[in-house]
Amino acid sequence: MALTDTNRWVRLRILQTLEKLGERAAAAAPHVALAISDPDEAVSEAAASVIAGILGEAAIPFLEAAARRP
Q1: How far is CA 53 from the centre of its chain?
Q2: Each residue of 19-54: pLDDT tens digit?
Q3: What is this structure's pTM?
Q4: Rounded to an integer, what distance in angstroms lies between the CA atom of residue 52 and that of residue 25?
């Protein structure tokens, strides 16, 4: 998936697109959850926002797990 592309702008653009899709992007949720741990802070923050938009309250475990990572 493009969320693992080496270009941060590609990753950010994919996240923007998924954010626009909202709940319709539910199939991408596992990939977005992994992107929360992206080393690029902008990508990581965008992924956290997108996962919340896709899953709503169901995103809480993903966000809590990301918060515990160093």
Answers
A1: 10
A2: 999 999 999 999 999 999 899 999 999 999 999 999
A3: 0.85
A4: 11
